[in-house]
Amino acid sequence: METLGHQLQTRFGFNHFKPGQKEVIEQLMAGRSTVALFPTGAGKSLCYQLPALLLPGLTLVISPLIALMKDQIDALTARGIAAARLDSTLDAPSYQTVLNRARSGEIRLLYVAPERFNNERFRQAIERIPIAVFAVDEAHCISEWGHNFRPDYLKLAEFARRCQAQRILALTATATVKVQQDICLAFGIDPANAVRTPFYRPNLTLLFSTVTEHVRDKLLADKLRQRPAGPTIVYVTLQRTAEEVAKQLAATGFEARAYHAGMKDEHRAEVQDWFMNSDQAIVVATIAFGMGIDKANIRYVYHYNLPKSLENYAQEIGRAGRDGQPSSCEMLVCGDDRNTLENFIYGDTPALPAVQSLVTELFSEGEQFDISVHELSAQHDIRPLVVRTLLTYLELDGYLEGGTPYYSSYKFRPLLDSKQILARFDGERREFLANVLRQSKKAKTWFQIDLDQAARRLNCARQRVLAALDYLGEQGMLELQTSRLRLRYRRLKPAANPQPLAAELHQRMLKREAADLARLRQVLALAGHNRCQTNALAQHFGDNLEQACGHCSHCLQRSSTNNSKRNANYQRHGTIIDEAV
Ligand code: ADP
Ligand code: MG
Question: In angstroms, what is the span from residue 9 Cα to ligand 1's centroid?
Fold first, then answer.
């Protein structure tokens, strides 16, 4: 095993393995599939990056976060390790080049998003390449009963089998005992091979304060004023709340700014930079903030709104105190939030008639058909993610097989007026382009064009229309964008009677709803727990502490009633559950 340490030093420049890394790598080197359960920032990626250099075959990394993929590939490339990603931003020749380099063994690590497996051409290509490690990042997304279920993950285990991956490495930072079981079961991993580092972080103080909605803002401002300054995240549920709370705090003199997925990319990057470089910045954010944030000295995390689950909570507070210094995580427990969150959960469950009409429509299509998730969502009044989930269930149950998705429609913004564009061409080409442009419909600044329809009307191949637009794009005459993804399906067997099938799918949705509601109740139960809350949270993730932590709301309250001398300590740590406002 000397060589592992040697590789660590020479290829990655690290002197020691972090906890758990060596165990995981040794399992993989011995040919065993495994699960790595380490907190965020604990160095999970190295667990596949190092074996990728030593094992013959390709290491295929499945990760849902394109931005993080890009960062990792840049870092690997800088270390002289050949890594690449295949995603929808690549044009056809670059895509082919990456695949060829993977096939020839030149590329050691290939990164893809889980959706990539919906592409038939990709599946076929990958089945011909020997896969040494099939590494699934954020593996908890596979669990239907987990907090962050992604339908595309459900199909990954089947793909891993199909491409005869020699070993699977599932990686996650937040998996309950149940979700760990789901991961092991799905990928056929022996649970005894799972490597888990302790969940408990002694430098985090968990506090809970009950509050009513109308005094919440004041309470937060008071708390921020009474403590020493330090990098702070305030988590909220809605984008609107992020804006409002940041504005109020800024108006009272705090260095506060909002961050959420509704903001423009540049603006978000700017807020992130500002936060990274400050030691008293307060960012008021939705859960969009935090992924990929590598700031060691975050001193405070407040939950202005209730987190949706203990998994979310653990992930969000896990961003505090990475440097090991004392840090405080405080949840403002507000009953009104419960209604809002429960309504979101109910809103995710389609009504039975909606599922029935969707299923009926799907089974009345021809054997091969294509659909748009957004259109189905609008027609049947089912949220887009839920439509996807239902389609995935039908795939897993053997009714449908997914084909390569495609973009039916493109939009473009002319950078010259159409006369100027046409003036550059003559003869048949000019006439063809004029016809293509005539097929498009103008919205505000963008023109929309349905390629299939245009091809039919112009009596030519779809490819020719696309090539013409591509050419105009390359020549800087217009800016081209794809839109309206359509998913293709083939029906493998008919549903004798769609009604019972719809009822069964609806039951599954109700079960998910019940699981989501239960998760929210667990958050409230932790807030009101009358034993050590740190320990209760650790237990939820399969970790048992020997004794009470001594510094969560519950422990502090006990010590303050037991020992009035400790009141100073209690005061410093703020309001305690049930006694608050
Ligand atoms: P995770 O995926 O668990 O959140 P990453 O794999 O992104 O964590 O690693 C977090 C950071 O730790 C990265 O900057 C990585 O380079 C660094 N790192 C990983 N392993 C080691 C090690 N053995 N020694 C020092 N730093 C490490
Ligand atoms: Mg990671």
Answer: 14
- pLDDT, tens digit (0-9, with 9 covering 90-100), for 241-257: 999 999 999 999 999 99
Check: CB of residue 412 under 8 Å from CB of residue 446. Answer: yes
Judged against a pLDDT cut of 70, whether residue 579 lies above it is answered with no
Over residues 560-577, the pLDDT tens digits come to: 776 654 444 433 333 222
**Cα of 49 to ligand 2 centre, how many Å?**
12
Provide the CA 171 distance to its chain's centre, in angstroms.
13
Q: Which atom of ligand 1 is nearest to the CA of 39?
A: 3
Q: Is residue 580 pLDDT above 60, yes or no? A: no
Which of ligand 1's atoms lies nearest the C-alpha of 38? 3
User: H or E segment at 456?
Assistant: helix 451-458
Residue 43 Cα to ligand 1 middle (Å): 3
**109 Cβ neighbours under 8 A, 6+ residues apart:** 48, 49, 52, 58, 59, 60, 61, 73, 76, 81, 82, 83, 84
Counting atoms of ligand 1 from 1, which one is nearest the CA of 173?
3
Name all residues whose Cβ lies below 6 A of ligand 1. 14, 16-18, 21, 38, 40-46
**Rounded CA separation 159/164 (Å):** 8
Q: Which secondary-structure segment (H or E) carries 471?
A: helix 462-474
> Distance, CA 41 to ligand 1 centroid (Å)?
6
Structure tokens at 244: 């409002």
Give φ, ψ of 530 to 5 degrees: -105, 35
